[in-house]
């Protein structure tokens, strides 16, 4: 039995260091490995008041800090460093939790509550951030709408693919206005400034899958992360970028400086939410920046100290397709998750099309080939209640569906009926663009 310490609001201790990034001053917190122990009075009324005061004080402290993050030099692919940036809620380094795994317990000298409020002797006590868990049942939708957007602040951005990888993909972190929240699997609209010369109207909003958990990368519940590919068109004759055909919103975000005020709307989306049953398996198929919602899923299931992580009893399987190994997104984070997960609980397959070949026809390896090569596992998991999620460019779905139809035929199954069954059971989730 696992009992989260819901009476203790855990917020990462921040050491604020003023720095300057491209001429704009921002704050950068570093994470301390020490924990703060708190004793609560035995009275339930006093406990409620004390916890409320601590929550308010911590929130104010984080807000005054600017909610910034360390910024890593562009091109290093080290936005997340498991040892330096992976400490959780000030209770200890990530490495200690990785090595401890399911056997990790709090230090014996940690004070959680007065004896009168202590859990049963046979219970394992773990810290759990919890103050946004109610959003699972009280789903946040449309805090702001495109015709009346809210204002977010860009805190930091960094390129997360190598210099030899095609294109430019950046991880972008925004501080949201107070009261604006979201859950894993939802999307955020960004409204770029300016007027479309063709229509003489404001640019249309661009919808981005959210790449962070509800607590955000800063773990204060006030930030949101996006994974954005800069949309560029290269003239086939000259090989040069045609600025007239560039993506307005993606280039706006990928060029914005820390401190930029960004108009946003949302959150929206009910299609890509995690299963309500914590024992269900999760299958995630992504191409490129389509991995964004799955980063949020996996941080929630394997990295953050939440009730959701401690109660997750299923298995997760990620299939990520990219053109080159230098374009593997968030690999350092996923490597840490593989170490942090219980044995056999997380499986990750990469389909690197320009560097790998499939075992079916010897051609380039794409995500549909990974599914075909693991067809029995894919069908068995779904038949046993797993939820499958697909996210990426819309061109990914036709070959995936064709592959699954071929596999179904080999198994003597009616593919249209099988797909209809999975959809009716809410096991089939698609978000393509």
What's the gist of this structure?
The chain is an alpha/beta fold and 433 residues long. It has 10 helices and 17 strands.
Topology:
Layout: E1 2-4, E2 14-21, E3 24-31, H1 44-65, H2 94-100, E4 124-126, E5 150-159, E6 169-175, E7 187-191, E8 195-196, E9 201-202, E10 206-209, E11 223-229, H3 248-255, E12 261-268, E13 282-287, H4 292-302, H5 307-311, E14 316-322, H6 331-340, E15 346-352, H7 367-373, H8 375-383, E16 387-392, H9 397-410, H10 415-424, E17 428-432
Parallel strand pairs: 1-4, 13-14, 13-16, 14-15, 16-17
Antiparallel strand pairs: 2-3, 5-6, 5-12, 6-11, 7-10, 7-12, 8-9
Description:
The chain contains ten helices and 17 strands. Helix 6 (331-340) links the parallel strand 14 and strand 15. The strands form five sheets. The protein has a six-stranded antiparallel beta sheet, covered by helices on one side. It has a five-stranded parallel beta sheet with strand order 15-14-13-16-17, with helices on both faces. A two-stranded parallel ribbon has the order 1-4. The protein is of the alpha/beta class.
* Major β-sheet strand ordering: 10-7-12-5-6-11
Q: What is the helix tally?
A: 10
Largest sheet: 6 strands, antiparallel
Order of helices and strands: EEEHHEEEEEEEEHEEHHEHEHHEHHE
Distance between the termini: 42 Å
Structural class: alpha/beta
Shape designation: globular
Give the total of beta strands. 17
Radius of gyration: 23 Å
Low-confidence stretches: 1-48, 65-95, 110-117
């Amino acid at each position: 039995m696992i009992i989260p310490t819901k009476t203790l609001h855990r917020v990462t201790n921040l050491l604020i260091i003023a720095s300057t990034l491209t001429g704009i001053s921002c704050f950068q917190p570093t994470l301390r490995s020490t924990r703060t122990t708190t004793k609560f009075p035995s009275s339930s009324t006093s406990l409620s008041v004390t916890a409320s005061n601590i929550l308010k004080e911590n929130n104010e402290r984080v807000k005054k800090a600017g909610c910034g993050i360390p910024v890593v030099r562009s091109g290093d692919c080290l936005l997340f460093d498991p040892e330096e940036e992976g400490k959780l809620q000030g209770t200890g380094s990530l490495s200690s939790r990785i090595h401890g795994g399911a056997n990790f317990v709090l230090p014996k000298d940690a004070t959680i509550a007065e004896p009168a409020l202590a859990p049963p002797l046979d219970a394992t006590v773990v810290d759990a951030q919890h103050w946004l868990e109610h959003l699972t049942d009280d789903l946040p939708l449309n805090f702001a709408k495109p015709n009346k957007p809210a204002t977010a602040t860009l805190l930091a951005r960094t390129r997360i693919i190598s210099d030899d990888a095609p294109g430019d993909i950046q991880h972008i972190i925004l501080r949201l206005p107070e009261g604006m929240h979201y859950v894993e699997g939802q999307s955020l609209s960004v409204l770029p400034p300016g007027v479309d010369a063709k229509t003489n109207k404001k640019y249309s909003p661009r919808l981005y899958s959210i790449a962070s958990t509800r607590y955000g990368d800063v773990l204060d519940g006030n930030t949101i992360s996006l994974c954005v590919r800069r949309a560029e068109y290269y003239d086939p004759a000259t090989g040069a970028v045609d600025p007239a055909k560039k993506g307005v919103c993606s280039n706006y975000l990928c060029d914005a400086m820390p401190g930029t005020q960004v108009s946003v709307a949302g959150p929206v989306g009910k299609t890509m939410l995690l299963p309500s049953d914590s024992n269900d398996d999760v299958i995630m198929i992504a191409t490129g920046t389509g991995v964004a919602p799955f980063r949020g899923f996996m941080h929630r299931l394997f990295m953050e100290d939440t009730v959701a992580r401690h109660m997750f009893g299923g298995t997760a399987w990620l299939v990520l397709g990219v053109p080159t190994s230098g374009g593997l997104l968030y690999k350092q984070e996923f490597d840490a998750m593989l170490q942090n997960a219980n044995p056999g609980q997380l499986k990750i397959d990469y389909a690197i099309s320009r560097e790998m070949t499939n075992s079916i026809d010897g051609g380039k390896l794409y995500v549909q080939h990974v599914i075909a090569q693991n067809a029995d596992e894919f069908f068995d998991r779904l038949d046993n209640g797993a939820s499958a999620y697909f996210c990426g460019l819309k061109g990914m779905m036709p070959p995936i569906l064709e592959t699954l139809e071929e596999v179904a035929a080999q198994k003597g199954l009616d593919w249209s009926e099988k797909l209809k069954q999975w959809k009716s059971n809410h096991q089939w989730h698609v978000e393509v663009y």
